[in-house]
Protein 1
Amino acid sequence: MADIKRERAMSDTHARATEAPRPASAEDVPYELIELLFFAYRDFVGDPDRILADYNFGRAHHRVLHFVQRRPGLTIAELLDILQITKQSLNRVLKELVETGFVESRMGTQDKRQRNLHATTAGRELAVRLAQLQAKRINAALAIVGPEAGEVVARYLAGLIDPAERRKVLGSLAGSD
């Protein structure tokens, strides 16, 4: 009987732990900010999406190209860690970027088994073109709230990153300029 009670208690504890946290009231849910993030993201990626469609590329191609262009020599393992996607997903996208001449994969200088990724001239041009579209949108938004708000916005966005990943992400931003 004690085993049954212990199992039931463990089951109840597991059920409570896996339930989504419930806010105290509907007013505690920042619906306006949630929706603004949805719409901002839609438009932020929408401009590049239209250009990427001309190449039969999608958002995954954009993310890969962005990080490869920003960090020449990035390894596949590092890229997988940044993007938090499966190797299978990355391989398909990377293969297309390599075959179309936007990214090249070079043998590692230290470890011949390692593959270092580099944007080609065409890859750099496309990545910069896409970044300029997004920069235009960011700069327009900062003009509305004032350029001094950029630091606050950066802290806010950093606060949205999973705390377990935040330090690593922020550290990688500092090293990519």
Protein 2
Amino acid sequence: MRKNVTLDRFDRRLLDLVRQDNLAPARILADKVGLSVSAVLRRLRRLREEKVIVADIAVINPALTGSALTMHVLVRMQQAGPQTMDGFAREIARHPEVTGAWDVTGDDDFLLKIQVGSMEEYDVFTRRVLGEDKGVHSFTTLITIRTIVEDDTTRRPLRDR
């Protein structure tokens, strides 16, 4: 298990800023944090090397890229043994329609977030992926009508350790 990285108030402020806009110039970050540009660049390099910052990504609008429909799917397996669960987890991670997947507690075993362009695409996905998997007992689909809060890590406060 990886140990926690020590973050001071400058690191936390920098992380808050780059979570909002990772393309912000170092001089702007330096002004907002109260450090020199070189100190900001050193800290950002260290945060990336220590894997505190694991990726610099773009958040894409799915409605504009052909994935306007979001479904949340509760999947119940025939048996909840490690081999079945691990196999399903590996298989489901291979499909680009699956934009989130969680192993959950309760009556169901997995929660999937599926993004597709149409109900027809979803039907093809469920028949091909969930319907043909002998380990899947059943699944329940919840169709998203509108998004209230997205799973957005920029909203979560950084916690002191």
Protein 3
Amino acid sequence: MQQWVFLSAAIVSEVIGTSALKSAEGFTRLWPSLIVVISYSTAFFFLSLTLKTIPVGIAYAIWSGAGIALISLIAWLVFGQKLDAAAIIGIVLIVAGVMVLNVFSNAAPQ
């Protein structure tokens, strides 16, 4: 169970860092840039803890898939990014892939 808490912390940290990238304006603004660096450092720290018990391929698939879905949602809600039908279908397929991996794959830890 602890590995899922670590993976969730890695995902949330990565999403915070990626969300702050736009505000960092190419690392020319101090505070958003610090948020990016701290968030990514935290994300990789927790991802490394996750890899003690979850295979790297599984952990990375979940981490990146959840991150893509959450960042897309934040981009739509916060930054007003438009998502067309193809983008929404692609995101749904990514989430579905992560779910299939977790529910049906014997490679994913229980």
Protein 4
Amino acid sequence: MQLGSNAGKDKNMEHKKFETIRSARRRGDGRDPLGTNSEIARKLKQYYDDIVSEEVPDRFTSLLSQLEEREESSSPTEKD
């Protein structure tokens, strides 16, 4: 029977944790339930956004254009 009573206590503790997190969110007291993981995610997103917003260098644009031209010129002669 001890297993049953321990399971009930564990469930009650999980419920209390959930309620604490939910009430902290409602109050907006700044407590983050994910802790440092949220900071890591925020920094990764910022880093990704910075990289995506960078312009493509002219050299890469030129190389891509050359590649497209070669693909277009070789396409009609190839058979699928």
